[in-house]
Amino acid sequence: MRLDGRTAIVTGGAKGIGLAIVQRLAADGARVMIADIDEAAGATAVKESANIGEVRFTSADVSERLDVHNLLAKTIDAFGSVNALVNNAGIVHVADFLDLEEADFDRVLSVNLKSAFLCGQAVARHMVDQISQGEEPGSIVNMSSINDTFAIANQVPYSVSKGGLSQLTKVMALSLATHGIRVNAVGPGSIMTDLLASVADKPEVRTQILSRTPLGRIGEPAEIAAVTAFLLSGDASYITGQTIYADGGRMPLNYTVPVKE
């Protein structure tokens, strides 16, 4: 499942699941461009990844078309081509439906959904140009969530954005299939990011999470990275338009399970 000779862009790749994906792709032989608005975290990510593979960083707000085109241009300048894209950038805004501000709704959808459209379209156009010059088709992975199906009452725009991303994945896959470009999504369940780690040591939070997770543990960012690397690799050559749920069995569950104390 090697990615030797590939160049990947990972949006929101400076921390958390994004950084785990960056490091997994680099370890598998890909050259990786991190795109993130957090310049300090981006610099740290590059430093931490230096002994793994070739990783660079560019500051970009991927919800802005100009930033996306600059990102693509910088990646091509640095590595010569782009063969893989991971649309991982995402934010959350917590508010009850009746209190949610329009600006916050728009902001979350811009980062979580519009950015995947902008980056996906720009990179896919580049891939099509490469194919016309004899290059192999590339692959795109969108970072969705189990919340493309499940809803959280006080995370309105997040849930809506992930539902939209699931449909965008299917539309992109169908539209780009004639070019041989594959598009899939990963839908994580509860993953031990810094945000979750900050509350997961509370007994009530841990019990709530594990009661809906048949495998009985919280997932790790590296496990999401492994699924992403698989979908980008030739091992997934006949998979497109799919969302792979890495959730410890939560999606099929219609009851809670006992939790070991």
UniProtKB/TrEMBL annotation:
Domain Ketoreductase: 6-189
Domain of life: Bacteria
Sorted UniProt keywords: NAD, Oxidoreductase
Pfam families the record matches: adh_short_C2
Leader sequence residues: none
Entry-linked NCBIfam families: PRK07231.1
PANTHER family named in the record: DEHYDROGENASES, SHORT CHAIN, ESTRADIOL 17-BETA-DEHYDROGENASE 8-RELATED
UniProt similarity note: Belongs to the short-chain dehydrogenases/reductases (SDR) family.
Protein name: SDR family oxidoreductase
UniProt source species: Hoeflea algicola
